[in-house]
Amino acid sequence: MTSNRLPDWVPASGLQLRLAGVHFDAIRVRGVRGEAVVHHLADATDGRPGPVVREISGGRWTYFLIPPGSSKVYTWPPGAAFFGPCARDQYVGVPAPHGNTYPLSWRCGPPVAGEFVDPELLHEIVTAQLCPASHEPEDRV
Fold first, then answer.
1. Source organism's superkingdom (predicted)?
2. Domain positions in the chain
């Protein structure tokens, strides 16, 4: 069960870099493809997809925060980078819920403690968005 309080890894103000694989893993998708994934994810979850961070400048990355350790369960398609337990340190920027957090913001509102994006649903949607040919029905003879 989730509470209405923010997770302890969300800063009170500004931004903080957080080591992926500790509090969460992250899946990163660039630009309009990331926005398309958010759109489909929000549709599938009645508008509450879980914590999604977006970068509003530069590469315009979208980061989907999933439970720690869950990124390694799936094979992510090209175009989706995963940040989680690995041999080298990987950090993800986390914005505060309000105030000046440029260039990062919460795409669907700040998360509550215990809330994550569903990794199985995310994998399905990311794979469909980044590898559409693998999801098309085969021609019947």
1. Bacteria
2. 15-131
